[in-house]
UniProtKB/TrEMBL annotation, chains A, B:
Organism the protein comes from: Bifidobacterium cuniculi
PTM info: Transiently phosphorylated on a His residue during the reaction cycle. Phosphorylation strongly increases the affinity for substrates and increases the rate of nicotinate D-ribonucleotide production. Dephosphorylation regenerates the low-affinity form of the enzyme, leading to product release.
Protein name from the UniProt record: Nicotinate phosphoribosyltransferase
Family stated for the protein in its record: Belongs to the NAPRTase family.
Cellular-component GO terms for this entry: cytosol
Length: 442, 442
């Protein structure tokens, strides 16, 4: 495993706030923080939560190395007694939230973190970094997967985002429905299908396109995918079948008018007897381009830039807000800020989705005192959206690792299928179901 | 230092291409690869190269751990003799390029990698990941810094991008002119100024705003920055000066109409005698918002989302293309692909910037055979844009670490100052100087 350094992937103010609250005692107040977004990006119809598994894995790494503590001390970011606190730091709180792969809407409480103020504060930046980026990629992947209508989409975006973000993006793309990734570190860490073809440089380093194709077939077998647009596509396809025979696995087209090229290449391949040879297209694809290729004889899509940058929305505006905490009397009290356009709804939330004719029709977000929430009766057939990830510091391993990613992919497909079909329209518009906020009397 | 795993931050096809070319012998051909972009994003006027220092640091880590090799073997990505090659892998090539912080334009050869095909191929993904993301952030930071007209801009964007990307973004923001970052890991790794204020949760966890302010002052001293928009800004400012005295370091406003609020708060602070108390504003700032605040009495800007997502352009479309390689006769030959809209210019390049009245007027990109390039005479006063970073595997440490970042910041400011002032306009338009491609006879 990698040396992750989760504790310092954090804004300085989390530490200075910890420092001040340890001194005045409020660091030990019981708190509930919630993660939510006020709006979906770009008039999208739904969001896709991703990153939960990564977050839980990062939480396991949330321990301070000696040189981290030295850094915090040397820079006078916190004082000596806070260093002592950090040395012994262990998150002992409880985390629940929407399942990875779940769809969400404005004000959905996608994550709820319950614990002492001090420990919950330290997690803010890391939680938001992970969920904001991974969910942005998963949402793009979900839209592309829908647009591809069953044809496999593959992540080839690593080179267009930060080298670590690329690893997270590969994982999040699988949550959103992608089948494989070109990124080897992601394939290794999360046991994902690794895929790839060849670059133009491979053709160019050889004395001829024929030499390049022969070399690739010799090394990777006939089932490989040959890149056919370095010089002239028609000649390259002819050559490819000549070299590999009709058992050639696939060809990739990376430039030009992909729809009409795919059609020409399909006909050419069929005429050459290579009827099972697949056509992969790449070249700045996004969900709109993929949708426009629906009638073209394309077998799979390789997606880069637009996947790893969230197709126009590289982040999700998720925030982490204190909604409840104990007062001097030890009793939980709802709290909320009143900032203009950024006011929050006090109190911890329950979250349910209700259905009509097996289709989701409303997101119900219910807040109120624990005693009231405990006896809240959801409507008939409402689905409880909150699951437990961490119980008093104990991380549930069912939500980490490879299997959790595949579970999330399956769960996402099911959650999406439950939404009104408008969700899969690429048209801009309101969230496909409304969020109803219900406040029980305090 | 962190366990980086540079070799696997790579698309699978780099390895399968290596495998095939090791078998047919072309892996040992001498090659020149170049990094460039065909266009600047969103009709920007200039680009800012960043990430070079990180790339050189990653190159030092480009060695294979045993379990990486096992992964490559177990997945049958490469065969046994390629594993042997990787076990001994060491980059022995030469890398030159634009200095970190340099401005660039379409077709500027921002990086040139010279070596054997095999070793150059393995670096492609990592080089592009680093340069594409870091340059996107640096360009956004540069535009924001220009718009801020000398007022300091601070990176507070970590929570809105992948947790590792956040570290790279903090560093790139400094290259683009930012003064500090909230990100502690970036501050630690690169010895940067760490900055921060407090969150709304800090106010809310206390029984009153007064208790929160008193706690922060007690822990951090009067020179701290208090967040004043949790409830009512006017009351909070009054309270802040009451608690801290007129020596209060600063206040932060994070919501509402920042210009008019800053004006009111400035007047209120002055009336209370807190004439040296600074005003920091945050809240979805970008270069346009910062420009619109020029006449408001703001002292510094905290920038989040729009910084770390490249202000609408989260990546730079840089590509890595083979331009020259040896043939069977051992002589270097120019190569180029002919793909529609993606054709490349063959041959290694020289790059110069020419000036008129001390202002840049043209980017000259000169290609041709080495013998011709060697005796190419640049025009009077042309600046050679290519510097040497790696000489036959030897990395020049002058371009890594903290000092290199500060050098890059300084160099960027100088390079930007040399451009026609239109560069600093936020209006969309053509690159501020043209790129002239010159081909010497082969």
């Amino acid at each position: 495993m990698l040396d992750y350094n989760a504790p310092l992937m954090t804004d300085m103010y989390e530490y200075t706030m910890l420092d001040a609250t340890l001194q005045d005692g409020t660091a030990n107040r019981d708190c509930v923080f919630e993660v939510f977004t006020r709006h979906l990006p770009q008039n999208r119809r739904y969001g896709v939560l991703a990153g939960t598994g990564r977050l839980l894995e990062a939480l396991k790494d949330f321990h301070f190395a000696e040189d981290d503590l030295r850094f915090l001390a040397d820079r006078h970011i916190v004082n000596k007694s806070t260093i002592d606190y950090l040395e012994r730091f262990e998150f002992t709180g409880t985390i629940r939230g929407y399942r990875e792969g779940e769809v969400y809407f404005p004000d959905s409480p996608v994550l709820q973190v319950e614990g002492k103020f001090g420990e919950c504060t330290l997690l803010e930046t890391l939680i938001l970094s992970i969920l904001n980026y991974d969910s942005a990629v998963a949402a793009a992947a979900s839209r592309m997967t829908s647009a591809a209508k069953g044809r496999p989409c593959m992540d080839m975006g690593g080179r267009r985002t930060n080298e670590w973000a690329a690893v997270a993006a590969a994982r999040a793309s699988i949550v959103g429905g992608f089948r494989g990734t070109a990124n080897l570190l992601a394939a290794k860490l999360y046991d994902l299908l690794a895929i790839g073809t060849a670059a133009h440089a491979f053709t160019l380093v050889h004395d001829s396109e024929r030499a390049a194709f022969e070399s690739q077939i010799a090394a990777l077998g006939r089932n490989t995918t040959l890149l056919v647009d370095t010089y002239d596509i028609e000649q390259a396809v002819k050559l490819a079948v000549e070299v590999a025979g009709p058992e050639l696995g696939g060809v990739r087209i990376d430039s030009g008018d992909l729809a009409s090229l795919a059609q020409r290449v399909r006909n050419q391949l069929d005429a050459l007897g290579a009827t099972n040879t697949k056509i992969t297209v790449t070249n700045d694809l996004d969900e709109y381009a993929i949708a426009s290729l629906q009638t073209a004889p394309v077998d799979s899509y390789g997606v880069g830039t637009q996947l790893v940058t969230g197709s126009g929305s590289p982040t999700c505006s998720m925030v982490y807000k204190l909604v409840e905490r104990t007062g001097d009397d030890g009793r939980m009290q709802p709290v909320a800020k009143k900032s203009k356009d950024k006011a929050t709804v006090p109190g911890r939330k329950l979250a349910y989705r209700s259905y009509e004719y097996s289709l989701a029709e409303c997101e119900h977000v219910v807040s109120g005192p624990v005693a009231e929430l405990d006896c809240f009766e959801p409507g008939d057939g409402w689905r409880n959206l909150l699951v437990d990830f961490v119980d008093h510091g104990q991380i549930d391993d069912a939500y980490t690792g490879h299997d959790a990613i595949m579970d999330a992919q399956k769960h996402h497909a099911e959650a999406l299928a439950e939404l009104p079909i408008t969700a899969q329209s690429l048209m801009k518009g309101d969230p496909v179901i409304p969020t109803q906020m219900v406040t029980l009397p305090w």
